[in-house]
Amino acid sequence: MSTVLETEEHQALRAAVAALGKRYGRDYMTSVVRDGAHPRELWNEAAKLGYLGVNLPEEYGGGGGGMAELSIVLEELGAAGSPLLMMVVSPAICGTVIARFGTEAQKRQWLPGLADGSLIMAFGITEPDAGSNSHRITTTARKDGEDWLLTGRKVFVSGVDIADATLIVGRTEDARSGRLKPCLFIVPRDAPGFRRSQIDMELQAPEKQFELVLDDVRLPADALVGDEDAGLLQLFAGLNPERIMTAAFGIGMGRYALARAVEYAKTRQVWKEPIGSHQAIAHPLAQAHIELELARLMMQKAARLYDDGDDIGAGEAANMAKYAAGEACVKAVDQAVHTLGGNGLTREYGLASLITASRVARIAPVSREMILNYVSHQSLGLPRSY
Q1: Quick one: which H or E segment has residue 211?
Q2: Which of 234, 300, 310, 244 is nearest to 92 (CA)?
Q3: Confidence class for position 4, pLDDT limits 50, 70, 90
Q4: Distance of alpha carbon 234 from alpha carbon 167, whole angstroms
Q5: HSE of 186 in the Cβ direction (CA atoms, 13 Å)?
Q6: How many helices (H) and strands (E) does the chain have?
Q7: Distance separating alpha carbons of residues 250 and 85, to the nearest angstrom
Q8: How much is the pLDDT for 177?
Q9: Cβ–Cβ contacts within 10 Å for residue 161, how many?
């Protein structure tokens, strides 16, 4: 893929991460999934090299960069076949929210560990009855003296089993029937009343999914991140990086699948010439490449706007990037499998499992339909249907 629009520093970062990813690759990630383990070796090495915390402030042990740099890291690991999904959650969402809105004590407690990979934080927003409608969040927080009591349920929370804490999105009790006033709380993994159960997924990934139950979880006052009355701003400060990183995840996966298909099409011979010489094979692969490149450009735009402090502009671009990357990823994986024919469904070539995995970029963290709603309302000014 062309990188001429990137700075020399970004090109160097991309090359270095690509080299790291190549040393691990798809076989490593497949073996981790097969063993029911976590990609700790890759996580720890990426952390040691400074890649996991590249977006976090230097004064707390990070790289002092932004989403532009962090998205490069995830994209290149994905393109090598070994993406780290928890990068979307721990440094991108939780690290960003704490860096922007946390107290000095919260920053000192969490950011150095999130930057060097020794601490991991999960993120819980989705609820069983709310789906993509964050206005229906029912997890509530009420004051009890100086403490908070948090009650509710969350689903599809990644990596809770390996997380030291989970950043939970709730709402103040008096806002239950009024305007949305989300609040973000850091809930330690061993907090009494905080229970998790693993969701049985068809998706083959090292990161497990969980349902959470919070039953009057008592939290100290300093578990609240930021201002109780500025929750919406703080929430979207985390959701825009989530969309940018999900785009990086999808683009990386699409690139990996496309590269395998191109390699196969150059050498596979059924008739006189390799199958890649036939336009019915070559043109769909070329189209997939174009769509991945276009998605990456929008992702870069979103990262630039976010890093420049334009939250509103970044919101539009991040949603568009996530949409474009999800579509491009699914199409690239589908075409790659189809290019290999029967071989595309074998364990040997390792592409079939991506058919399921690629859907993640379309579904999570927000569906493509909700993004189309956002663009039709916010960008085009069309009336709302809900």
Answers
A1: strand 209-219
A2: 244
A3: low
A4: 12
A5: 27
A6: 11, 8
A7: 11
A8: 52
A9: 15
Distance CA 156, CA 150 (A): 19
Phi, psi angle pair for 227, to nearest 5°: -95, 130
Q: Where are the beta strands (DSSP E) in the chain?
A: 121-124, 140-144, 147-158, 165-172, 182-188, 194-198, 209-219, 224-225
The owner of tokens 């690239």 is: 332
Helix ranges, 49-177 (H):
67-79, 86-87, 96-101, 104-116
HSE-up of 314 (CA within 13 Å, CB side)?
Answer: 23
Helix (H) or strand (E) holding 268: none
Lookup: tokens for 320: 């568009």
User: What is the C-alpha separation between 43 and 51, in angstroms, rounded?
Assistant: 9
Q: Could you give phi then psi for residue 171, rounded to 5 degrees?
A: -145, 150
Q: What is the pTM of this model?
A: 0.94
Burial (Cβ within 10 Å: 0-12, 13-18, ≥19) of residue 189: middle
Q: Which of 41-45, 58-62, 225-229, 359-363 has the lowest mean pLDDT?
A: 225-229
Buried b or exposed e, range 192-210, using 16+ CB within 10 angstroms:
eebebeeeeeeeebbbbbb
Instruction: Spell out the residues 6+ positions from residue 301 whose beta carbon is closer than 8 angstroms to its own.
Output: 317, 321
Cis status, amide bond into 365, omega within 30 of 0:
yes
- Tokens 């009650």 correspond to 151
CA distances from 279 to 242, 266, 284 (A): 37, 13, 8
- For 131-208, strand residue ranges (E) read 140-144, 147-158, 165-172, 182-188, 194-198
231-266 residue pLDDT tens: 667 777 789 999 999 999 999 999 999 999 999 999
Q: State how far the Cα of 319 lies from the Cα of 291, in Å rounded to an integer.
A: 16
- Dig out the tokens for 154 from the structure: 């969350």
Residue that is written with structure tokens 């400060």 in the block: 237
